[in-house]
Amino acid sequence: MIGTVSLAQVGALVGDPTRAAMLQALIDGRALTAGELAALARVTPQTASGHLAQLAASALVAVSRQGRHRYHRLATPQVARMLESLMQVAAASAPPRARTGPRDEQLRLARTCYDHIAGRLGVALADAMMARGWVEIEDDAALVTSDGMDQLAALGIALDPSSTGKVRSVPLCRPCLDWSERRSHLAGRLGAALCTHGLERSWIRKRAGSRALEVTSAGRRAYRDLFCIEIFET
Amino acid sequence: MIGTVSLAQVGALVGDPTRAAMLQALIDGRALTAGELAALARVTPQTASGHLAQLAASALVAVSRQGRHRYHRLATPQVARMLESLMQVAAASAPPRARTGPRDEQLRLARTCYDHIAGRLGVALADAMMARGWVEIEDDAALVTSDGMDQLAALGIALDPSSTGKVRSVPLCRPCLDWSERRSHLAGRLGAALCTHGLERSWIRKRAGSRALEVTSAGRRAYRDLFCIEIFET
DNA sequence: GCGTCGGTTCGGCCGCGGCCGTAACGACGC
DNA sequence: GCGTCGTTACGGCCGCGGCCGAACCGACGC
Q1: Are residues B105 and B216 in the same domain?
Q2: Which residues of B78-88 are buried (b: 16+ CB within 10 A; e: fewer)?
Q3: Cα separation of A75 and B34, whole Å?
Q4: How far away is chain A from the Cα of B213, in angstroms, using its nearest Cα?
Q5: Which of these, A176, A185, A141, A77, lies nearest to B191 by C-alpha position?
Q6: Partner residue opposite A94 with nearest CB, options B6, B24, B76
Q7: Which candidate among A9, B101, B186, B207 keeps its CA 20 to 30 Å from the CA of A159?
Q8: Can you give the CATH number for the domain in which A28 is found?
Q9: What sign for the dihedral angle of Cα B5, B6, B8, B13?
Q10: A8-55, pLDDT tens digit by residue?
Q11: Of B87, B88, B141, the CB nearest to A172
């Protein structure tokens, strides 16, 4: 049975609480130093270093030296998707999730999912764009309509299709099941473009040391005016 | 940091070699008894029982009693996708994969990936359909073109879009990175339909006790004639 | 009733692996 | 040069968890 050992090895890597915390801290695509990851995971630097060496040896994280720091990030988007799928299953396995602290609430409102927006804001954006006919979402596939391409371009979101243009609808969009909302939000190239677009216009801002996204007042206005999204009260 | 424990818990479940072997045996969607899984994982029944109890408690597998047998299967397609994504990362982490035994070869040629076809046959089908313009595949999104819908219908593969029909291209198709070929094959509703279609016409046949698919002589002919696929010679 | 078979529970053994203390190593800044 | 910060290497402790043997439970068939 080919691959069994490898499957178990990767599972075991994610299976340790310390390593899992580190991986989860890296899931938004940023690069963190070993010291930061050690503090996040509540272990001593040398322990963290050992874990990071394992993760690097298995090519789950990539390291890049810079001065006397070593920055660690997830090696590929594949790894981020793997972690997301694990978190989906984890969220489904533990339904009675009563923990709704303030940190929690921020994460549920809006957060990054490697390169796109997740949380209530993410699913609200997906809903709005589907209602307008800009995208179509099936259970595990999605696409941007030609109308959606035009409207998004008008908003300054250019989706270079890189295709020959002989077809009008291009698959630039991938549904990504949200582990907190249990609904689909938009990933793929469109999801990444939406996130970049919001960051450039300061509609959303990355919080330091967290995956949570802060929605600025300008962002509230913009998302409300453009997409009729009203999820920001309380 | 919400979810950390859960993430690690699921990882640890997959991280044990015995449980990993069981999960991998279930990845094709079949339901197996505890005894079969024990034999597959090379452990005694009581050990297997303990592992299966854990997997069931975390809702990774679902059990259904039937007489004095207990059939175990993956709880949701989500779990299958999670395992596939883990295997992709595992395959990428261990590049020098020299093991190419006969069992291995069968799996690489054609196998099921929960509900669709993977392996060389899977990527060849994807390539052929893309070359004909029936589907379009980007890196992490895919769709069936209207032309493809017609042509597939002519072959007896009906993809009920469940949509209003106001658009011509519907997202019924999801790319799934193949861990052995490192190329995309077709999943989603089209992938499942292709697999069912082949099984109904006895072009492919499920091998007992394995995920490997046997391509019948009729299947070789059909796939060659319809899609110009020539991958079946040793 | 009895025997058989599939599956589970209990108890105890044992080994793997995470953790830290200490110490060494390397890169920077002065 | 020197001190400091960050990272890595080694040794040893300890606890979690997988494994099996034996016994128990329930379902079937006669």
Answers
A1: yes
A2: bbbbbbbbbbb
A3: 37
A4: 14
A5: A141
A6: B6
A7: B186
A8: 1.10.10.10
A9: positive
A10: 999 999 999 999 999 988 888 888 888 888 888 888 888 898 899 888
A11: B141
